[in-house]
Amino acid sequence: MTKQTYEAVYARWQADPELFWAQAAQDVHWIKSWDKVLDDSRAPLYQWFAGAEVNSCYNALDVHVENGRAQQLALIYDSPVSDTYQNFTYQELRDKVATLAGVLANMGVAKGDRVIIYMPMVPEATMAMLACARIGAIHSVVFGGFAANELATRINDARPKVVLSASCGIEPARLVAYKPLLDQAIELAEFKPEKCLILQRPQLEASMVPGRDLDWHQAAAQAEAMDCVPVAATDPLYILYTSGTTGVPKGVVRDNGGHLVALKWSMKNIYNVEPGEVYWAASDVGWVVGHSYIVYGPLFHGCTTVMFEGKPVGTPDPGAFWRVIADYGVNTLFTAPTAIRAIKRDDPRGLYKQNYDLSCLNALFLAGERCDPDTLQWAGDLLGVPVVDHWWQTESGWPMVSNPLGIEPLPVKPGSASKEVPGYDVRVINVDNEEAAPDEIGDIVVKLPLPPGALPTLWQNDIGFRRSYLETYEGYYLTADAGYKDEDGYIFIMSRTDDIINVAGHRLSTGGIEGVISAHPDVAECAVIGVNDELKGALPLGLIVLKAGVTRDHEQIVREVIQMVREEIGPVAAFKKATVVQRLPKTRSGKVLRGTMKRIADRQEWRMPATIDDPVIFEEITDSLAEVGYGPEAVE
Ligand code: COA
Ligand code: AMP
């Protein structure tokens, strides 16, 4: 067979996208074939594989049990924080999931019902997602680092019949009691789920609400295994909430059929992984990376996936990732650049790596935030394998721009996520609303229709979907990232165009944080900016204007707003610094100049905006930033 090139595969997709995806779909087990590969009858809303029936859990588990992988490991659970290590073969995982599906059915969950999963990184979280898929229920996983209020918002929007949770999560320095957060969220929410299924972990026992809460293991002991239920390819598999500009999270919908085809295709063509290999995404099931590449992608492809409940450093040392790779023969590792920066910070010479045999590792993939060339270089030098920076979002569900290792490794340009993946026609639009010239920065957009696997809409909100993503440029999906393409077609992602910041690879809305701070009784107004951080990429910093006449201690007020953000949004916001300022710099029309404040804080060049009447304000801001360690005057 002649070796395929990236150019040839991309051209083949461009020539006939429907044929391309219909061919990729041959790798999937369908219960009923499609009537139409692409249904464009409601354009600009599109659906893939209309008329087809499928089951995502069947494709993740049963198909492999039936085709020779029953005794192969499907899932490895490695938890240094609880000192627990467990393996599940495909058959074992299928049986556990089938029983859990029976538990859900006993709790009254049926096809189309929503189930919220609020769990730490334990195997039961993966089982919960697959059990929902098995019976056609729609799961919505909420990351454990979010507080009760965020969980309540999601409960109100998804209206779940039941919630699956655990007694606690384990962070290196503390136990996180999930159950009280869940109880509080249900209290806060207008919509009340009927039942909760609680996994009691030995580290911390949760108290149960009689009549509402069921014990996971007791319920499983009484349940019968359930078979896979056929669902429409276009039915939602899950909803995953992600930060939006308004501070109100957006419910990104993923369908069954398109998702299955796209993820399976990506495993071979992007990640260059073969069935039977070990694939480890060191992320969390609460994020899209966890959905696509801890749970669904590797299992659709017949790989062994790893769930790691720990951190890159401190559990117990910066060799944790290397230990896991060596212990399980990991072939492909996926993580966020911040994890590599954390390892580099604690072990700059990479000495811990010497304790392990990493000859099994073929490649390291990085995403979630911009990867600085230094981190890319350091990881490449240390590991001696290709390090691939690739770009995607919760909305796309799988990579939009990547070096497609399984098609053809392309030359690397540090700072670029490489080229657009077949399925994605990525363009850059400049300030004049025209397609940008090479190297000219602009809005990054994707020509419609988006490929299979990308979001078809927002949960019960077609209007919001159109408004957020489709209306800025007709015929294009707005990614809300800015960047440029160079002459060779390499894409460089530079920044967000909205108020989203990436903190340790976690996506947060500064507007959402501002909303919480503004509710403090002493606060007149505030601005939150994402300042550069060597470890986490960005950190939120609050600038607070107090109401006239407030004489209370400023430090006390700052402590209170920090606590409020922790309680309302969650520790994941990493909001630890704020300062009181006299006033905020604004344009004449009243727009707060967050960008200029960020440049000052980051010690970058900045220009006095022409729309400012009183330039002294920037001197005040510079002084205030210095007090919290930012800007040119900062006390080091
Ligand atoms: N449940 C409850 N709390 C959680 C949590 C969870 N699942 N995950 C994180 N938190 C808490 C942490 O305990 C921490 O709280 P603290 O303020 O009391 O210390 C806070 O949220 C911030 O957590 P984190 O971002 O993990 O920061 P950290 O300082 O503990 O660790 C890194 C820094 C770089 C090691 C860590 O961010 C990391 O491993 N990042 C990998 C990136 C990643 O997985 N990205 C996902 C997208 S690919
Ligand atoms: P999330 O939806 O949480 O996965 O966050 C998606 C956002 O993270 C993107 O819109 C980008 O802003 C950023 N991002 C993800 N991967 C990359 C990357 N490789 N380079 C630059 N930014 C990235």
Tell me what you see in this structure:
The protein is α/β, with parallel strands linked by helices and 636 residues long. The protein folds into 2 domains: 6-310 and 390-483, ANL, N-terminal domain (Rossmann fold); 504-627, ANL, C-terminal domain (GMP Synthetase, Chain A, domain 3, 2-Layer Sandwich), CATH 3.30.300. The protein contains 18 helices and 30 strands. Bound molecules: coenzyme A and adenosine monophosphate (AMP). The site of adenosine monophosphate has 18 residues, from β25.
Biggest sheet architecture: 7 strands, mixed
Question: Which value, in Å, is the CA radius of gyration?
Answer: 24 Å
CATH class of the largest domain: Alpha Beta
**Overall structural domain count:** 2
Q: Considering the protein shown, what is the CATH homologous superfamily of the largest domain?
A: ANL, N-terminal domain
Shape: globular
**Count of helical stretches:** 18
β-strand number: 30
Report the span from N to C terminus: 61 Å
Helix content: 25-40%
The helix-and-strand class reads alpha/beta
Bound molecules: coenzyme A, adenosine monophosphate
CATH topology of the largest domain: Rossmann fold
Beta-strand content estimate: 15-25%
Q: What is the residue-mean pLDDT, rounded to a whole number?
A: 96
By CATH, the architecture of the largest domain is named: 3-Layer(aba) Sandwich
What is the spatial order of strands in the main beta sheet? 6-5-18-17-19-20-21
Low-confidence stretches: none
